[in-house]
Amino acid sequence: METQIAGSIARMDGSTSQDAIFKDVLAYKEVLAHIMKTCVPEYKDCTIPQIIGYIEPNPQVGQVGLHPDETNPPKIQGMSTESTTTTEERVVYDVRFSAVAPGEDGKIGLIINIEAQSKYHPGYPLVKRAIYYCGRMLSAQYGSVFTQSHYGEIQKVYSIWICTRPPKERENTITSYTLQERHLVGHVTEPVRNYDLMNVTMICLGKPEGKHYGGLLRMLEVLFTGRYAAKEVIQILEDEYEFAHAHTMERTVSEMCNLSQGIFEEGMEKGMEKGIAQGIERGMEKGIAQGIEKGIAQGIERGMEKGIAQGIERGTNRERLQNIRSLMETTGWPAEQVMTAMKIPAADQPKYLKLLSLPQ
Fold it and tell me: pTM of the predicted model, to two decimals?
């Protein structure tokens, strides 16, 4: 069935861009609702359908379509994903949208930013970038959410980051960073709503065999890592996470799976190449070490053999020398005659003659 989804996938030069697909998947309300249920405390007591109802409650004039899938679209329209000022760096958000949540004094407004990131260490602290995004979303409310000194109207902002390839120690973790009240001197209490205005949450995906795998971490791992075929992903979303409109995601999920599988295979290939190179290097190092060790052992063995042989030879020489001297004293024969009588080889006789000349 052709749906709104077919036209929503961004293509560049005939191929789907990675960023576009990630953003497209994250724009689905059911995906967002599960993220918000886990990461946004304001929704912890809400059901997924209730959360979906809180996302972008105000219809946008001129953007409501006539087809059934467009009158109640499964995707958010989203706020502007670009933030620019005359003095600060241009910021382009992956997904940014408004929502309301139940509060003590009725409904409260929220602005939520979702980002997909492959590396947790891209060359700078990712948490600092997320905090900067929160700052920009707060300051950008001037002129649209509040004006002049009406700071009480500022809405709370969330920046939630999904890291698909975090370092091993961060796999299967969800970590939140917030503003908190500390009593340094005395004890006074400010209403939480007056300072709890920004929240950074880092979602680090991991492997199924890892600790804490399950819930939201499993859902996002299934969606983004390419370990499953598109139909399997849709089935898991429907069976385990009760997605009511998973079928509308099928084409985007298919694109996502194909892209992720390609990235996964490329990573495997590069990993194997690197592994082979490292294996050869380590093999050579181990071979050299073993060669040295074996050489030392053989050297010791040969040295001992040679030492024993020399010891035996020296013992034999000493004994023969004593016998030669004894016969010379007994017979009065010269050394040459005694050695001939003892059948000492002519080639060895000069050695004994030299030893006989040395002082005893």
Answer: 0.65
Residue-wise pLDDT for 301-354, tens only, equals 787 777 666 666 777 777 888 888 888 888 888 888 888 888 888 888 888 888
Q: How many CB atoms lie within 10 A of CB 200?
A: 23
Q: Residues 6 or more apart from 229 whose CB is under 8 A from it?
A: 257
Dmax over CA atoms of the chain, in Å, equals 137
CA atoms of 84 and 335, how far apart (whole Å) = 113
C-alpha span between 49 and 82 (Å, rounded): 29
Q: Which residues contact 155 (CB under 8 A, 6 or more apart)?
A: 98, 108, 109, 110, 111, 141, 145
37 forms beta bridges with none
Residue 163 has phi, psi (to 5 degrees) of -100, 115
CB atoms within 10 A of CB 129: 16
Treating both helix axes as pointing N-terminal to C-terminal, what angle do 250-331 and 349-357 enclose, rounded to 10 degrees? 70
Side chain identity, residue 313: E
| CB-facing half-sphere around the CA of 147: CA atoms within 13 A | 2
The strand pairing partners of 165, in sequence order, are 119
